[in-house]
Specification:
Distance between the termini: 101 Å
Order of helices and strands: HH
Strand content: under 5%
Oligomer: single chain
Largest sheet: none
Structural class: mainly alpha
Number of strands: 0
Number of helices: 2
């Protein structure tokens, strides 16, 4: 009786088989991290207080119509 309970306890203590990590998941995580890094770098390059002015109205190619 004790042997059965010990075997059952050992079975419960063994870690379950995990599934293998997907290379696509690693690629997606790297792409997400790279995108975030590029966005943060853009904020640091531009810095606070940068404003984009509206472009001047372009003149038409043919002034008479």
């Amino acid at each position: 009786m004790a042997d059965i309970r010990i075997d059952k306890a050992r079975g419960l203590l063994t870690p379950p088989e995990g599934r293998r990590a997907s290379p696509w998941a690693a690629l997606g995580a790297a792409a997400l991290a790279a995108t975030g890094a590029m966005l943060m770098a853009g904020v640091m390059v531009l810095g606070p207080g940068v404003r984009f002015e509206e472009p001047a109205v372009a003149q038409p190619l043919f002034p008479n119509g």
